[in-house]
């Protein structure tokens, strides 16, 4: 008879289809939010800055209106999913529990960050969009009496810079949640016995 020992078998806690869908949804939404906020700051805003003041004010207000619909949904969904996975983890203090908790906190912090740092700039730009709605695009002196740091272009540029904070928070949330999902894979010893002759008959 011969015996063969094999160690290092991978296993992961079995999850039902609904939980797997929720996990993928949480990871996808947080990653999408990170990519979206990054694209706005590094792609959309630089392109908008070439527009005349009235048009810029209108365009950036359109960006704000879209964010009001999409971003809260993404943040709430991702926070709920990661918070639930942290809550259902029976091993309090385990790496997965800590990582899911961290990711839910990071994603939830997008709300207060936006309120404290982005909202004041957004309010100024929204007021400009309303006041300049009927202004001529060819009026180059439309902000001649406005302080340089309070011009529409300066405020939009500042908003894009501050918006990167949301990119950092959502990226870290996506990374820690992904790490938590991968960390569910563990290496455990496993034994496989191969017997010969009568050994296979239980003797």
Automatic annotation (TrEMBL):
Segments passing through the bilayer: 68-86, 98-118
Entry membrane topology: Multi-pass membrane protein
Subcellular location: Membrane
InterPro entries reported in the protein's UniProt record: Anthrone_oxy (IPR013901)
Gene Ontology CC annotations of this record: membrane
Primary location recorded for the protein, binned into one broad class: membrane
Pfam families, A to Z: Anthrone_oxy
Protein family membership: Belongs to the anthrone oxygenase family.
Protein name: DUF1772-domain-containing protein
Originating organism: Recurvomyces mirabilis
């Amino acid at each position: 008879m011969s015996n063969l020992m094999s160690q290092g078998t991978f296993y992961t806690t079995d999850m039902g289809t609904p939980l797997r869908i929720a996990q993928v949804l949480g990871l996808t939404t947080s990653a999408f939010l990170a990519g979206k906020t990054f694209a706005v700051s590094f792609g959309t805003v630089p392109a908008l800055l070439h527009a005349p003041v009235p048009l810029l004010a209108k365009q950036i207000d359109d960006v704000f209106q879209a964010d009001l619909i999409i971003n809260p949904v993404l943040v709430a969904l991702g926070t709920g999913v990661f918070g639930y996975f942290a809550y259902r983890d029976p091993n309090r203090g385990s790496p997965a529990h800590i990582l899911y908790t961290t990711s839910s906190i990071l994603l939830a912090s997008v709300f207060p960050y936006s309120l404290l740092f982005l909202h004041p700039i957004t309010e100024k730009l929204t007021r400009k969009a309303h006041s300049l709605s009927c202004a001529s695009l060819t009026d180059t002196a439309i902000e001649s009496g406005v302080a340089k740091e309070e011009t529409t272009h300066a405020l939009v540029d500042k908003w894009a810079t501050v918006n990167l904070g949301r990119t950092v928070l959502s990226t870290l949330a996506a990374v820690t949640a992904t790490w938590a999902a991968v960390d569910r894979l563990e290496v455990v010893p496993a034994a496989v016995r191969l017997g010969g002759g009568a050994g296979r008959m239980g003797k």
